[in-house]
Amino acid sequence: VSKSNIVLILIGATGDLARKKLLPALYHLVAENLIPPLYIVGAALEEATPATIMEATKPFLKKFDETQFQHFVKNFSYCPVNLAHPEDFKKLAACVQDVQHKGYENRIVYCAVPATLYGPITEQVAAADIIWREPKKTTPWCRVVYEKPFGQDAPSAHALNQTIARYLDERQIYRVDHYLGKDIIGSIALLRFTNRIFEPLWNYNHVAWVEIDLSETVGIDYRGSYYDSFGALKDVVQNHMLQILALIAMESPKLLQGNYIRDQKAQVLKHTRFVDGFLGQYRGYLQEKKVKQNSTTETFAALKLEINNKRWHGVPFYLKTGKCLQKRETKVIVQFKEVDCLLAQRCPSDPDYLLIQITPEAEFKLAVNVKKPGLALEVERVLMSFYYEHHFSPGAVSGYEAVLEEVALGEQAISVRFDEIEYAWGIIDAIEKRKLPLFIYEQGSQGPEELTEFAKRNKMRWHI
Ligand code: BG6
Fold first, then answer.
1. If I label 86, which of 18, 92, 211, 259 is the partner at 20 to 30 A Cα–Cα?
2. What is the chain's percent helix, strand, coil content, to nearest 5?
3. Is 71 a catalytic residue?
4. Number of helices followed by number of strands (H, E) in the chain
5. How far is the CA of 410 from the centre of ligand 1 (A)?
6. Lowest mean pLDDT among 18-22, 136-140, 194-198, 369-373
């Protein structure tokens, strides 16, 4: 057994995230030998066994292989833990030590539990010596992973950062955002900074506006109590969408790695301001399970933000997201300005744009104008497309696989730093203070009708 072996303590092992995302991702990484040898110690409130947990996980595995499956279950143990009982954490520590004696020395603690438990869990695992502060880069190492939402506003995120900083160095902390694990999102910086056709144009001189859209057809499913206290702004804007905005808008990092990227993203988030916007709620939301009667929680948001710096002076960033919409689609549109030349005036054409599509298919599309065949001078806009999966192998690594792989390898680009998180919450807090109007929209529609009014008012056009 080599020194790089890892024991992963999965807190919340019987929960939904573990069953549907984390364990399938770990299974795949182990089966494909993409991470060092791994032993999992599951912990949760319930009585369970590795076999029962993995049986429930089976339907979510991409590829099932009996031998691999048995091997995975063999390297998995389970320890029931009640957060209110410190002695349970001592038992968990003993369980982890057993595994350590088998040669699994490096540690990952993965908190797949509600965010309100991050502070208390960190305190308990520190008290039980399950985690330790690394004085500098050392082996064996110890890393702790926190899921989103990290806090529920800027003050609570700040308090949580302070609590965990008492026990861990920032280098050991992974506040993961699974969007940062998506390949195409990882390519945004490369696309921008390594291509001459984009790099010089990526600023207020040439960009009219940027649109970031995260539309979903699904509703809130079984997550009524969580969703009703969070809503779209806190569920996806604060994290996934503002992270995309930061990657689209940041200055060039020296290297495409952890802190270099995070320094640049933090600068963007620090200078991002809310300008205009409105919220929506799908009809029928109030009848969802565990949603408060008369709840005013938003399931839709349309926002205009601006970044107060030289590069983006006066360029609006429009963010739009919603549940129960007509289409499932996550995309970024970089809308270029009109070309200022005589020919362009004589043959009316739409300005070009770049589409970065994240779901359902990862693709880049560049809209350009061409002349239609024939004698008359007529212009048509065509799309030059690049499909990720047509070129690279399909579905190579999923968001969570990338997240777990990078934690195991110690790369922090998929992890959001303490300052980024607090700036992002600051933006959301400012929006919430404005008490934006809430419009009801029909399920399966494009969102509230107010979208048209908003577009008119802001002289923009949604790419729907
Ligand atoms: C999660 C949100 O973080 O992201 C969900 O809590 C949302 O509400 C999901 O549906 C979207 O992620 P993806 O990868 O399915 O686009």
1. 18
2. 40, 25, 35
3. no
4. 17, 15
5. 24
6. 136-140
